[in-house]
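#struct-pred

JT: dropping the chains for the assembly here, can someone run the whole complex?
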Amino acid sequence: MAQTSLDNLYKNSIILDHCRFPRNSSPISKIDFSGNAINPFCGDEILFELSLNDHFCIEEIRFEGEGCAITLASGSMISDHIKGMSIEEVSVFTEKFRLDMQTNSCKSFHNESDIFVLYDVMAFPVRIKCVLLACSALENLH
Amino acid sequence: MINIDQIRNDFPILSRKINGHELVYLDNAATTHKPRSVINSLVDFYENHNSNVHRGVHTLSMEATDKFEEAREKISSFINSQTSQSIIWTRNASESLNIISYSWGNKNIGEGDEILLSPMEHHSNLIPWQELARMKGAKIKFLSLNIDGTLDLSNIDELITQKTKLVSIVHVSNALGTINPVKELCEKAHQVGALFVLDGAQSVPHMSVDVQDIGCDFFVFSGHKMMGPTGIGVLYGKMEILEEMDPVFTGGEMVLEVTYEKASWADIPMKFEAGTPNIADSIALGTAVDYLQNIGMENIHDYEKSITSYALKKFNTLESEGVTLFGPKSSDQKGAVFSFHIPNIHPHDLGTILDGMGIAVRTGHHCAMPLIKSLGVSATARASFYVYNTMKEVDTLIDGIKSAIRYFGDGSN
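RK: done, full complex below.
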């Protein structure tokens, strides 16, 4: 079981690509909102900085992370996923995605961006918190 | 020589399959597995002797009390305490250290006093002293660390002064495996009239410990790291010091006489054991001590030393792959604890990959955050061995690490 799931999780996967080459890691021109989160059990940390356009939607985003492949890939993927959203939409997204990951009831985002691969992490319950650290950082936006 | 196959047969969990593989359990510094005799001891107590202790004249109560006090005797002789009265049951080493800090510390540490620690302390032997120092205006000082993870004692006479009231040191580091020169440190502490506290959580399961020979004033450890149940630990203290200490917890069991206005305390050790104690687990810890003594602590130490030597050699072959092993590189200075770091593979990812192969290692900061930070990493992977582990399991670990490096290196397996 685990080897197959492990293959899904790491091997030749989009996760490793995001971990090695995180998206949206360059500095942005202005910072309207920022939010970070730390996992006290392992020390993993994620920071998002973002700027809004005239329509109050995310124009630029920067993601910075320190941690395991899952934490980093999740931060990178989610930074791509929320580009163009309003702050309210980000909040709807984090709530829905968190519920998906924690209840294993539905995969709301299976077609839209790379984040669908994060659902594979549900086979490793102890690592779900690594995926959700990015959500916690976004929930702390101020 | 010890018969490892026979020992392994005593541990039911070792025959479990994890993710389709034989379990290779290398997280013994976190907790150890329990032999059948310890598990049976718990069942036997609840099935045949269950009763409260020290407070009944009926048969079951007397049986429970006898077994409970017999376990205390076993612990006492295991660490060569002067008397079993010096053995106080606690939940774990952390609670034992907190009792010293709250009781002895509160009474004896004042403004400007100094507490000396090592930089490799588990949070349990750091935070209670931080809290005490904060409340009392005392100061915490730290010994230095050599690059190989041993303590640098070259400036010890500058660090232990007349201001030093307490020296509290880990016997064997849970993060680096370093075996510290505790007898020498104890002597230094006593030369200036300071007390010496020894955290034996990682030593007493693996080697023979004689508290009188070391001379320590307090010795603390946890039952679950030495084949005993969780939730039971020990605080050993010298009688003359315990006599002067006030109880931290009050209530039932720990009193001599009570009126509506006041109470007087029972004798040691009961003065420190308020409420119904953890009877079944204390008794089962006594059974764990029987089991360890049956193998022989010298035999256990010798065997683990050979595992350490073998694993050190094996880790050496991983150096070319960029693997950094922290801590001493000699089995004379190191217990069978291997903390390591692989570039570009976060320990949690390594832990998940190894788990897929049935190998259980710990990943993270090992409750020694400042130490791990000082190594220049945010976390390490740690493989820690016990007497039921085999040389073959060292090979399995090393192969697992190599496979993880390939996994993350080029995506092939």
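JT: nice. Chain B has 14 helices and 19 strands. Chain B touches chain A at residues 19-20, 346-349, 352-353, 355-356, 363-365, 369, 378-379, 407-408, 411, 413 (CB under 8 Å).
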